[in-house]
């Protein structure tokens, strides 16, 4: 007899409960975003409206998230991975505008920590390998969407997640509607745009 190992995925409610039991940390660093020149302005870059309208790896359509990377290299890798997925040439993905953002948040969960992934019972491999676009097209919610929704719904300001595009990179996802009054998420050098 062959034993079958199932890897049941946690429900949204389970994720919310598990994330809610974690103690969020403070995050205060510079982060980076890549944008098309059309949206490279102070009023568009930090709203999350693009992800709300189109969805993303960590959020379904309708959930507002600002995607940023911890390094400019990861921001570029994320941009190129998106375009390559759809068969868009690198040349056609250009030009891009890169911006730096001051992020000082008080309620962030860091998925770089194995203990965090262990507590919510989702492996790094599952996070990195899910083809979220394929899952959405098939009418299923990808695990990354479930994690993002859970984090948003329990009131986290952000989560730090591994980059699927850059093996050494990480991204900060910020939920603008959850930003607390003591927190800061501000574009640096907006006068240069």
Summarize the structure.
The chain is α+β, with helices and mostly antiparallel strands. It is about 35% helix and about 20% strand. The protein has one domain (about 10-190).
Please describe what this structure looks like.
The chain is α+β, with helices and mostly antiparallel strands and 193 residues long. It has one domain (12-188). Helices cover 35% and strands 22% of the residues. The protein has 9 helices and 6 strands; from the N terminus they run αβααβααβααααβββ. Strands 1, 2, 3, 4, 5 and 6 form a 6-stranded mixed β-sheet that branches. β4 (158-162) and β5 (170-174) form a beta hairpin. The longest helix has 14 residues, at 72-85. It is globular.
Give structural attributes:
single chain; 193 residues; alpha+beta; 6 strands
* Main sheet attributes: strand count, strand direction, barrel closure: 6 strands, mixed
**Strand count:** 6
Order of helices and strands: HEHHEHHEHHHHEEE
Give helix % range.
25-40%
Instruction: Indicate the low-confidence ranges by residue numbers.
Output: none
Average pLDDT works out at 93
Strand-pairing-aware structural class:
alpha+beta
Rg from Cα: 17 Å
Secondary structure topology:
Elements: H1 12-20, E1 25-35, H2 42-45, H3 49-54, E2 66-69, H4 72-85, H5 90-93, E3 97-110, H6 114-120, H7 124-129, H8 132-137, H9 143-153, E4 158-162, E5 170-174, E6 184-187
Parallel strand pairs: 3-4
Antiparallel strand pairs: 1-3, 2-5, 3-6, 4-5
Helix pairs in contact: 1-9
């Amino acid at each position: 007899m062959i034993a079958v190992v199932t890897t049941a995925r946690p429900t949204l409610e389970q994720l919310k409960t598990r994330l809610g039991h974690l103690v969020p940390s403070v995050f205060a660093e510079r982060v980076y975003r890549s944008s098309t020149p059309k949206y490279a302005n102070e009023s568009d870059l930090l709203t999350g409206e693009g992800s709300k309208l189109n969805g993303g790896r960590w959020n379904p359509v309708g959930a507002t998230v600002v995607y940023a990377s911890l390094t400019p290299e990861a921001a570029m890798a994320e941009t190129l991975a998106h375009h390559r997925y759809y068969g868009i040439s690198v040349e056609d993905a250009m030009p891009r505008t890169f911006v730096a953002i001051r992020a000082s948040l008080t309620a962030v969960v860091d998925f770089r920590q194995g203990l965090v992934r262990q507590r919510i019972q989702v492996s790094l491999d599952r996070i990195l390998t899910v083809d979220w676009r394929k899952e959405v097209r098939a009418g299923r919610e990808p695990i990354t969407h479930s994690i993002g929704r859970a984090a948003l719904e329990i009131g986290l300001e952000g989560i730090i997640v591994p980059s699927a595009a850059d093996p050494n990179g990480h991204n900060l996802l910020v939920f603008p509607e959850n930003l607390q009054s003591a927190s800061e998420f501000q574009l640096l050098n907006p006068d240069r745009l």
